[in-house]
Amino acid sequence: MTITQLLSRVTFFTGLGTDIYLPEDRLVSINKYYDQLHSIILESQDEWDFDDNNSTDLPIGSANLLENIGTYHLPETIYRLNKVEINYGSGFIKANPLDLNETGLSESEVLSRATVDSPYYRLFGQTIKFYPTPTSEVTGGLQLYYDRAVAEFTSAEVTTGTKNPGLDRLWHDYIALGASVDGAIKFSLTNLNSLETKLQDMEGRIRKYYGKKTVDRKTRITNLIEDYS
Predict the structure, then answer these.
(1) Edge to edge, what strands does the sheet with 60-65 contain?
(2) pLDDT above 60: residue 229
(3) Burial class (CB in 10 A: 0-12, 13-18, 19+), 172
């Protein structure tokens, strides 16, 4: 469903023309529920990791390690880190996440225990800190695997009218329904409750769908009883 079709669906659900429910207000609501739908997918997904179909690259970022620099800034478009790999000069190795509140260790204790063969990282907002601190520069020595923000619709894309939401088209109507709920609230429409019910019902089906999208996975039962005879 293109952005033009999404906006037409908002008119269908609300009965409001663009002279009443203004295009700029519709766009704000469209992007709001696009983000909300993305959040629902991330919360519900199984082993099949979601990424915006409109993206032209993979959600893998790389950066250079800098000598004696252990702290690096993360882009705001990163929603969630799935894996961190670091190369101190002898090849990539997975870094493990660290929470000092859970370990009970001080930062100096972590620094003394961490090695290039067993590195750790901590997150502070949009900042990531590595243990141990790199002692030399390594080109492309940092790789991040992450979930990223969807590419929201712009006013220029509304004018062009051909861009689609970057997810399964089964659920495009969720975005139009959400924007219609906003319109129904603003203009006190009598079908508000009906629209909210439709939205909630669709959310439940979306969660179920993305929670079981990977079907090519068999359950394996392993005998955990060891034979010591």
Answers:
(1) 60-65, 138-148, 78-87, 92-97, 120-124, 127-131, 71-73
(2) no
(3) buried
- Is the bond into 23 cis (omega within 30 degrees of 0)? no
Q: Rounded mean pLDDT of 110-133?
A: 90
Q: Bridge-partner residues for 73, per DSSP?
A: 127
CA 39 – CA 31 distance, rounded (Å): 12
With bands split at pLDDT 50, 70 and 90, how would you rate the model's confidence at 48?
low
Residue 129, token pair as written in the block: 């800190």
Could you give the percent of the chain with pLDDT greater than 70?
A: 91
Does the structure show a pLDDT above 80 at 217?
no
pLDDT confidence tier of residue 125, bands split at 50, 70 and 90: confident
5 token code pair: 């079709």
Per mean pLDDT, which range of 13-17, 149-153, 224-228 is the poorest?
224-228
